[in-house]
Design goal:
CATH superfamily of the largest domain in chain B: Beta-grasp domain
Radius of gyration of chain B: 16 Å
Number of strands of chain A: 14
Oligomer: heterodimer
Strand content of chain A: 25-35%
Bound molecules: flavin-adenine dinucleotide, FE2/S2 (inorganic) cluster
Order of helices and strands of chain B: EEHEEEHHHH
Number of helices of chain B: 5
Number of strands of chain B: 5
Shape of chain B: globular
Largest interface: A-B, 31 and 29 residues
Shape of chain A: globular
Number of domains of chain A: 3
Largest sheet of chain B: 5 strands, mixed
Largest sheet of chain A: 5 strands, antiparallel
Structural class of chain B: alpha+beta
Strand order of the largest sheet of chain A: 4-5-10-6-7
Distance between the termini of chain B: 56 Å
CATH class of the largest domain in chain B: Alpha Beta
Distance between the termini of chain A: 59 Å
Helix content of chain B: 25-40%
CATH architecture of the largest domain in chain A: 2-Layer Sandwich
CATH topology of the largest domain in chain A: Enolase-like, domain 1
Number of domains of chain B: 2
CATH architecture of the largest domain in chain B: Roll
Structural class of chain A: alpha+beta
CATH topology of the largest domain in chain B: Ubiquitin-like (UB roll)
Strand order of the largest sheet of chain B: 2-1-5-3-4
Strand content of chain B: 15-25%
CATH superfamily of the largest domain in chain A: CO dehydrogenase flavoprotein, C-terminal domain
Number of helices of chain A: 11
Chain lengths: 293, 166
């Protein structure tokens, strides 16, 4: 099918884009189009105006500083994934990105677009939430920063206002004592995952000082679960099982077309064990590298 | 209500075209219907099959997920643009096209244009892929006929042909 008619503007400046967006309550931002265009073609969305932001200047940056990994609204998934600076500063971003769709989709789709699209089955909204990142947004009345914890309102629903454009997402850099892990199961390579799990584990003097898990595709929003208490300082079959229980209580997996709740719960257990071990080992490896260098 | 038309300058395979299209004209439809470049095929029209893949500023992208009005200022390469100049009027097949012909990399040919563009860009980034890398290179494209074995062979053969021609 083809999209319904819409008015189209391709502003060269941010102010013009913000005004065009504010002028029509039925307007929507067009970034990479890798989520929006299918919705238009299937007539699941019918905005009256599209504000194409691809000609806006100075938004395609991928920058790392002590404040974090900064990804501009026009940086494509592929650009972020290709950056060695990003991989060193926050390896979870790179690891998760390698699971986002196929390279051809990543060449056009933007990481910021994926984050504000707020699909609970997408990798990057979960990663931003797990790491405690944020999104900077602009409207005609100024800019504000939305912490990831306040970004997701419901399925495919972010807390951006209709007249706001997201300018940049910021992911905190990985602290020296932290390690990360990420795993997902999809039916086909490159598909959206049935379940995906990310972990960030802090190890101090050989014991686990904190551990957080992020889940995608299990509930209808990306979900972060703190399992520090359940692990009680160490990884064992028992403590990992306890962590999975805490997660499942918060997640409440449901049946859908793609998997039953029982199967999803099973995947949650299996993947939780894998990512906790991976993140713990990663933290130990990093500690060892620090001692050697 | 008559729909607003936009003047669009599209640069395709090195030739600049001027067209007047509604904003909702997909790039795939602009190529096929407005420019008559029917080498680009349309299968699923929602980004999954890869048949419509073209190169936008040398990177493979789905032409069914872009609007023609968003493609201004970009250089687009379709399967028609993969032919190489060799002095003859039609030119000769590019290395990837030649390899598909030699290795029986296509049957019905519906998926082929998307594979050819994707592999052309893939070999530019990785001119000498292993078999696993060749398979990975085509993992985002669907083919209902070949079972992919000969497509993977074609990727490896194309890399040889490109080397021989250099
Ligand atoms: C075949 C296929 C497979 C895919 N598989 C995956 C996958 O496995 N995992 C995954 O995470 N994603 C997947 N995707 C989606 C892909 O990651 C998209 O790139 C991403 O979800 C949206 O980014 P975009 O730039 O294309 O946004 P668009 O499609 O342009 O926009 C998406 C939504 O966000 C809004 N928006 C975008 N940018 C801004 C901004 N700067 N400010 C305000 N609003 C904005 C738009 O208005 C729209 O509502 C897949 C897509 C396809 C076609
Ligand atoms: S027609 Fe574009 S991906 Fe299938
Ligand atoms: S050759 Fe028929 S779909 Fe690939």
């Amino acid at each position: 099918m083809k999209p319904a008619p819409f008015a189209f503007v391709r502003p060269q400046g941010l102010q013009h884009a913000l005004e065009a967006l504010a002028a029509d309550p039925g307007a929507k931002v067009l970034a990479g189009g890798q989520s929006l265009v299918p919705l238009l073609s299937m007539r699941l969305a019918a905005p009256t105006t599209l504000v194409d932001i691809n000609a806006l200047p100075d938004l395609d940056h991928v920058r790392v500083d002590e404040g974090g990994v900064h990804v501009g609204a026009l940086a494509r998934h592929a650009d972020v994934l290709a950056s060695d600076h990003v991989r060193r500063a926050q390896p979870l971003v790179s690891l998760a990105l390698s699971h986002v769709a196929h390279p051809t989709i990543r060449n056009r789709g933007t990481t910021v677009g994926s984050i504000v699209h707020a699909d609970a089955a997408a990798e990057m909204p979960m990663v931003l939430a797990l790491l405690g990142g944020s999104v900077a947004v602009a409207s005609r009345s100024g800019t504000r920063t939305i912490p990831a914890a306040e970004l997701y309102a419901g399925p495919l629903e972010s807390t951006l206002h209709h007249d706001e454009i997201a300018l940049e997402a910021t992911f905190p850099v990985l602290a020296p004592v932290d390690g990360i892990g990420f795993e997902e199961i999809a039916r086909r390579h490159g598909d959206y995952a049935l379940v995906g799990v990310g972990a960030i584990v802090r190890v101090e003097a050989g014991t686990i000082a904190s551990a957080r898990l992020g889940y995608l595709s299990v509930s209808d929003v990306p979900t972060v679960v703190d399992v520090t208490q359940a692990l009680a300082g160490e990884l064992s079959a028992g403590s990992i099982e306890a962590a999975s229980e805490v997660a499942l209580r918060q997640l409440e997996p449901a049946d859908d077309l793609h998997a039953t709740a029982a199967y999803r719960s099973r995947l949650v257990r299996v993947l939780t064990a894998r990512v906790l071990r991976a993140a713990y080992d990663h933290a130990l490896d990093r500690a060892r590298d620090r001692i050697e260098s | 209500m008559s729909e607003e038309l936009h003047e669009v300058r599209l640069s395709v395979n090195g030739v600049v075209h001027e067209l007047r299209v509604p904003a909702r004209r997909l790039l795939s439809d602009a190529l096929r219907h407005d420019l008559g470049l029917t080498g680009t095929h349309v299968g699923c029209e929602h980004g999954v099959c890869g048949a419509c893949t073209v190169l936008v500023d040398r990177r493979p992208m789905r032409s069914c997920l872009m609007f023609a009005v968003s493609a201004v200022g970009s250089e687009i390469t379709t399967v028609e643009g993969l032919t190489e100049q060799d002095g003859s009027p039609e030119g000769r097949l590019g290395p990837v096209q030649q390899a598909f012909a030699e290795c029986h990399g296509l049957q019905c040919g519906f998926c082929t244009p998307g594979f050819l563009t994707t592999i052309t860009a893939g070999l530019r980034d990785n001119p000498d892929p292993s078999e696993d890398e060749a398979r990975e290179m085509v993992a985002g494209n669907l083919c209902r006929c070949t079972g992919y074995v000969n497509i993977v062979k074609s990727v490896l053969r194309a890399s040889e042909i490109a080397r021989e021609r250099r």
